């Protein structure tokens, strides 16, 4: 087995290595050594190479992160711009929030001039057509009762004009404000009890006859309690339906509303 031949460097060669001699690498390198050939004049090449390796590793990692970020942007449908940067912040700028104003007018909706009579406002909700429906249904109910009981009321006369229904309703409104012990007291001759406005509007007997047969719904369409589809509110539903439509027609709700708890279904 052959022995490695050692090369002994002179002081001049050692100084050349330490102080950056321009000697060629072949002269100072061993024939058997596999040392990397270093650039002359750079005695910190090993450290430099290590720093370059670390830098390249960091750059590779950044490239991977950027490519991963670009893929996420593409998957979100926001474009494939690799140079796009996403920034996050906890600050809120309310000026960038767009608040759209309502495009509707709130409040009463009608064409009545200022200073109109209160009865005109009342007729916006309780219309002439509704009074006509009440007139027809009242006459039908009177016929139904008389046929069912096989009796004839000699004082009863069908309501011919819608104005008579208006007069009847006017008397009812006055009675709700000025209350007396008995209904007949409103036609009393005693000035302490009798109401002159009611006396001028309708006679007592006629008022009592209309009150006996006053009906809001069509009796022919009403169902018995044992019938399928019976509704306990069927006598009021037709009238209430028209009334609700009139409220929606002549009043537009405001943006801020206060709801009473009695209106909320529990």
What topology, given as strand order, has the largest sheet? 1-2
Structural class determined from secondary elements = mainly alpha
Described by strand count, sense and barrel closure, the largest sheet is: 2 strands, antiparallel
Shape: elongated
Fraction of helical residues: 40-55%
C-alpha-based Rg, rounded: 51 Å
**Total number of strands:** 2
The residue ranges in which pLDDT falls below 50 over 5 or more consecutive positions are: 23-30, 40-51, 67-75
Query: Quaternary status of these chains?
Result: single chain
Strand % is under 5%
Can you give the mean pLDDT? 78
User: Which series of helices and strands comes N to C?
Assistant: HHHEHHHHHHE
What features would you describe in this structure?
Residues 117-265 form the PiggyBac transposable element-derived protein domain. Pfam families: DDE_Tnp_1_7. Residues 24-34, 54-64 have a biased composition (Acidic residues). This is PiggyBac transposable element-derived protein domain-containing protein. Residues 20-82 are annotated as: Disordered. The protein is mainly alpha-helical and 266 residues long. It has a domain at 105-221 and 230-244. Helices cover 45% and strands 2% of the residues. It is built from 9 helices and 2 strands, in the order H-H-H-E-H-H-H-H-H-H-E. It has helices spanning 11-18, 25-28, 45-75, 118-125, 128-149, 162-177, 196-201, 204-213, 237-250, and strands spanning 107-108, 251-252. The chain has a two-stranded antiparallel ribbon. It is elongated, with a radius of gyration of 51 Å.
């Amino acid at each position: 087995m052959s022995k490695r031949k050692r090369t002994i460097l002179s002081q001049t060669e050692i100084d050349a290595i330490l102080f950056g001699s321009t000697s060629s690498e072949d002269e100072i390198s061993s024939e058997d050594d596999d040392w990397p050939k270093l650039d002359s004049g750079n005695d910190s090449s090993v450290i430099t190479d290590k720093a370059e390796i670390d830098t390249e590793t960091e750059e590779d990692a950044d490239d991977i992160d950027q490519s991963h970020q670009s893929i996420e942007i593409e998957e979100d449908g926001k474009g494939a711009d690799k140079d796009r940067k996403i920034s996050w912040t906890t600050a809120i700028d309310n000026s960038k929030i767009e608040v759209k104003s309502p495009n509707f007018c709130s409040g009463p909706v009608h064409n009545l001039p200022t200073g109109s009579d209160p009865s005109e406002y009342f007729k916006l909700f309780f219309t002439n057509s509704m009074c006509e429906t009440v007139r027809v249904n009242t006459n039908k109910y009177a016929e139904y009762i008389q046929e069912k009981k096989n009796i004839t009321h000699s004082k009863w006369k069908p309501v011919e004009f819608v104005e008579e229904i208006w007069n009847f309703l006017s008397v009812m409104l006055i009675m709700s404000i000025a209350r007396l012990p008995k209904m007949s007291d409103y036609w009393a001759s005693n000035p302490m009890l009798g109401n002159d406005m009611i006396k001028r509007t309708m006679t007592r007997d006629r008022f009592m006859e209309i009150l006996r047969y006053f009906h809001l719904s069509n009796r022919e369409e009403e169902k018995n309690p044992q019938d399928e589809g019976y509704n306990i509110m069927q006598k009021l539903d037709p009238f209430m339906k028209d009334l609700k439509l009139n409220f929606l027609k002549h009043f537009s709700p405001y943006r801020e509303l206060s709801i009473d708890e009695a209106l909320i279904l529990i």
